[in-house]
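Section 3.1 - Work completed
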Amino acid sequence: KTDVSSESNVQELVSTVQQQFGNIDVLVNNAGIFPSQPALTMTLELWEKIQMINLRGTFLCCREVGNLMAKAGKGSIVNIASIDALHPSMAGLAAYDASKHGVWGFTKNFALEVGKLGIRVNAIAPGGISTEGVKKMTAGAMPADIDMNVVMKQFLAKIPLGRMGEPDDIALPALFLASDASAYMTGSMIVVD
């Protein structure tokens, strides 16, 4: 377990992985939180926690793993952004949206920085994916007077396929971006929504 917002934790993680496996060929930055809270009532502490995990964690992992990849002269980094990096999906996610816009901006710029070192950096923008975190959020995030079934029905009505995505719907594009099948891609985002 690693707190990706902690520089020393990330350094320890990378050191441990390097000792056990040697080079790191692929990094997928998937850690993230998305508490729903209106900006007008959000505490600074919650705002900063979201930025620390979602954006700072991406930076720290990219920096530490990127240095190893640079020594090897190759590597692929996949940052998990969000469809919210392109457009907001719902009110109450201003802090999350800001962090994911940051991940997308960082991805594009970091790709410019490390491309000549043989490192590719891309992103995936998932839409609604049925993960444990989403299930927890929807189970307890809504006020008692809001019918979650109605909210989900309205949400699903906006999705052309009429369903939430599954984790494998993101894993397969991540595999593509991690592999040589995407060898001429860097600074790109695949939207999976």
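Second construct:
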Amino acid sequence: NPLVVADPSFGEPTPEQLAKFSAVTKPGGRVSKRRSVTNARDLSEVYFAPLGATADEARTIRKLFRESNVLTGAHATESALKGVAAPRILHVATHGFFLQDTANAVAGSAQVTSRGAGANARIENPLLRSGLALAGANLRGGSGDDGILTALEASGLNLWGTKLVVLSACDTGVGEVRNGEGVYGLRRAFVLAGAESLVMSLWPVSD
């Protein structure tokens, strides 16, 4: 059956981590909800803001495909996604990110928008610099289910027989171009995993 993963519970980081994240102060001193971090040196400094409207996205898809399995909130985990076995359609609505290589990026030029992340990073493998945020992504958990599905991890999914993968997030089509090799990023990862067709974005999108 089709599988929809949407509106993950990213969790709230520690007060020390929160001090790094941006908030908008409105007239009268009121502080609005935190937005995704606009600049970061690496993934440890990125903050993934909630994506409430992606829950509506999931409900709408389920009306079209009533046999769909839907994972939201605390159930939209990295482990759950790794455990899928060739759903006919896979639709993932969350934050996507591609961390720029500091060797090729101008300091401060990488940005994170509402559903995507760009950040300066010292990671050479581009399949480790791109990925999707899932439940617990802000908590910086252990090496097991840390809430971050990197492109390298995505390449190990069981999607042989999956007709369509939709990565409904920012910058999911972005990657690093290597001469003679093509683009390294989420697209390559999901093709390696067996997906027959992909729908991705090359730009930021709202929830």
